[in-house]
């Protein structure tokens, strides 16, 4: 268990016990993320970093795991009518461009800064999830909703200012997420709801589709520079996508309040650990 995967002919320096831990972690995160509409790469990334993986490689590995998780979750949400492709076009296209630039240029930024930014985002998401849990009210929700009637109006239902603001947010999220290795649905969801006035369930489904597109191009940027641990990517992707598929089916049926409290507490603690670790990398 203390041997690296390279001992078995695999191109990875990660130890066997670490690989097993990351595999199980990815499955659990996939279930929770699929249920609440978040890829939760902010949970996986800190452990990749704390286990000693270089920041650009951790980013390139983690972002595709989140991307594949977003794909399976997106399929489930699409089947149940929670995806608005006009929303995907407005924020998704700029996010794709930003993600590729961020992924390709990740090693232009110091590793300490990348870890520090990751720590801040992890800490922020922990606080956001804690506050979200506090606002969560037990209620019976029918998860099978039809596509919103206003989607037929296309882009005309939003002002040019709303479209421009959402596009700028999409590009900024893509740029940052591509560099750090996160699809950042936790930043995307509030923007979709507040700027475009979306039903939260439509925002969750549409946000996962955008996360898939953004993460794909962010990963291409990292892969072009050899910043991916493929054995760990494969292990985490398989369990993460299975978890996300089943988790998406729980939307509206399972109250995520206690899970959000738990995840929030874990992320707050890990965020502080990453920020402390970042100072040793400058």
Distance between the termini: 32 Å
Large-scale geometry? globular
Number of domains: 1
Helix content: over 70%
Helical segment count: 10
Q: What fraction of residues sit in β-strands?
A: under 5%
Mean pLDDT over the residues: 81
Structural class of the secondary elements?
Answer: mainly alpha
The poorly predicted ranges are: 139-150
Topology, number of strands: 0
Radius of gyration: 18 Å
Characterize the quaternary organization of these chains: single chain
- Biggest sheet character: none
Instruction: Give me the strand/helix succession.
Output: HHHHHHHHHH
Could you describe the 3D structure shown?
By secondary structure, the protein is mostly helical. It has one domain. 71% of the residues lie in helices and 0% in strands. It is built from ten helices and no strands. It has helices spanning 16-36, 41-50, 55-79, 85-104, 111-135, 160-180, 185-196, 200-223, 230-248, 257-279. It starts with 15 loop residues before the first helix and ends with a helix. Residues 139-150 have low confidence and may be disordered.
